[in-house]
Design brief:
This protein is an all-alpha fold. It has one domain (about 1-35, about 55-235). It is built from 7 helices and no strands. Helix 1 (about 1-35) runs antiparallel to helix 2 (about 65-85) and helix 5 (about 145-160) runs parallel beside helix 7 (about 205-235). The longest helix has about 35 residues, at about 95-125.
């Protein structure tokens, strides 16, 4: 019995550390991304890059730095969902398992998306091998990069929404965790509907900016709340 309790304590301590790390890394990533606004598409006002985007080499490596911690965020997200799965009560593990499955899908999409940018686009630009880059580069407001980010972060929010039942129970903290997950997905779906109505298929990266902002805020807030939840569990 004592060994079982010790193992549970170690799991909860590790979960607390992961949650805190997630909040810090996501915040740093968010700040770096904000400081490197897109120089193409609807939000660009001057010195904008145009198709075929072969001159974006001038933004190397500055506009790619934020992708390295973003990949770490995607990895930490999977680890956090594993922690939540182990933390969940037995009758609620089916929901945490669903959330973990969505987390894996999201992480694979986002890591592959970012890794292509830093390991394919950057060397290609430096070598002058620009064929096919136009559809893959992050500077294309309706390219592959933007589409993968949109679906990746949408699935990440669905992953969080899936584990709402895990945190059913009394107390303001658990209610705040549930509301964070629910509100995040509702805002994303509502935003997608509005943007699609207004811009149709030519939404460029407008929805991508919205979904990534909502999800990163959701990650920061929920990670802080989860760290408090795990901290309380360690004491009991």
């Amino acid at each position: 019995m004592r060994n079982q309790k010790n193992r549970e304590k170690v799991v909860i301590q590790f979960s607390f550390f992961v949650a805190i790390t997630m909040a810090i890394v996501t915040f740093i990533t968010f700040v770096i991304a904000i400081l490197t606004p897109p120089l193409s598409g609807p939000f660009c006002k001057s010195s904008c890059f145009e198709y075929p985007y072969t001159d974006v080499i001038s933004r190397f490596p500055r506009d790619y730095i934020w992708m390295y911690p973003a990949m770490l965020v995607a990895l930490l997200f999977v680890v956090l969902m594993i922690c939540i799965h182990h933390y969940a009560e037995n009758e609620k593990k089916i929901f945490s398992q669903i959330g973990l499955s969505f987390a894996l899908i999201s992480s694979i999409i986002l890591i592959a998306d970012y890794f292509v940018q830093v390991s394919v686009i950057q060397p290609g630009l430096l070598k002058g091998e620009t064929e096919g880059i136009a559809m893959l580069t992050q500077f294309n407001p309706h390219g592959v990069f933007i589409a993968l980010e949109e679906i990746g972060y949408l699935i990440m929010s669905i992953s969080f929404f899936s584990i709402v039942p895990v945190f059913y129970g009394k107390g303001g903290l658990r209610k705040a965790i549930r509301m964070t997950f629910i509100t995040g997905l509702l805002l994303i779906v509502f935003s997608l509907i509005l943007v699609s109505i207004k811009f149709g298929i030519m939404r460029e990266y407008i929805f991508e900016v919205i979904v990534i902002s909502i999800v990163w805020l959701e990650l920061i807030i929920s990670s802080i709340l989860l760290s408090i939840e795990f901290r309380r569990a360690m004491k009991t």
